[in-house]
Amino acid sequence: MMNSAEPQRSPRVRWMWIVSAAVVTVAAVAAAIWLIAEPASPQRKADCAVVEDAAREWQASVETLIPAQGVTGPSDKFVDEQYLKMAAMVHTAADSVSTPEIKQHLNEWATAADRLALSQQDGPGRPEPPRTPEEMLKVFSPINDAAVALGELCPNMPSAQR
User: Fold this and answer.
1) pLDDT tens digit string along 30-74?
2) Where would a tag sit more exposed on the chain, N or C end, judged by fewer CB atoms within 10 A?
3) Which of these, 10, 98, 91, 8, lies nearest to 48 by C-alpha position?
4) What are the two backbone dihedrals, phi and then psi, of residue 130, each rounded to the nearest 5 degrees?
5) Helices 100-119 and 76-95, packing angle to 10 deg
6) How far is it, in rounded angstroms, from Cα 111 to Cα 90?
7) Mean pLDDT, residues 91-98 taken together
């Protein structure tokens, strides 16, 4: 039985928090792009191309979750499916690189994306979705940290700022 004193947030508010936090997370990469990376080997350049593609794909996925003004947002099921696809995409990117630092940060991003995707799913044994700004920060900080580190290693990684 739910505590009637506990405020309930609609699914719309929940996913708006999540989408907003995702956009802010990727925007933090902009600061890292200004840092100059050490000269890159051909393998590192190839791995950075994977990172750049993953960041663009992540951004495109996030954009599908943001409704146009005055338009009803996507369904919870669609949001859940997108987060699962986003997590799988980052895992695939991590599996396809060989530069140790890049692989490590992509794996951190993928692990955090998995936690995010799982937190959005209902069911027994699933973690509660983040409801407060502090809980959102806890979910998105590892994604942000990994994105910043990858932006330092791969300065052409796109950011959320246009």
Assistant:
1) 444 444 445 568 899 999 999 999 999 999 988 888 876 777 777
2) N
3) 98
4) -65, 135
5) 160
6) 9
7) 96
DSSP state of 25: H
- 14 contacts: CB under 8 Å, gap ≥ 6: 129, 131
pTM for the model: 0.70
Half-sphere exposure of 154 (CA within 13 A, CB side): 29
- The per-residue pLDDT for range 104-156, each reduced to its tens digit, is 999 999 998 888 887 766 666 666 667 777 877 887 888 889 999 999 999 89
What is the rounded distance in angstroms from the CA atom of residue 17 to the CA atom of residue 145? 19
CB 144 within 8 A of CB 25: yes
Within the chain, residue ranges assigned H as helices are: 11-27, 29-33, 42-64, 76-95, 100-119, 133-153
